[in-house]
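INSTRUCTION: Work out how this chain folds

Fields: amino acid sequence; protein backbone structure tokens

Chain under study, with its fold:
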Amino acid sequence: MIRSELVEKIAEENPHLYHRDVERIVATIFNEIIDAMANGNRVELRGFGAFSVKKRDARVGRNPRTGDSVSVEEKHVPFFKTGKLLRDRLNEG
């Protein structure tokens, strides 16, 4: 599912809301999650999962094409851990 499909689904299930308002709501939710993670905070959506930021230390890597050593800088990467409800739903028989 992509963002526009999510907006469409919410708009269909809530005919009393204008489409532009649903787009604004979805954008606000995503922006709040992004802002919280950019500030180093954890975002937990009960039953769905938790978003956090993990730090990867600087290291020496290899260029797969040439085999040369390459220094890789320290970086921060997003991490998602599924919630119990989502995990159970995915593993239903």
The radius of gyration is 19 Å.
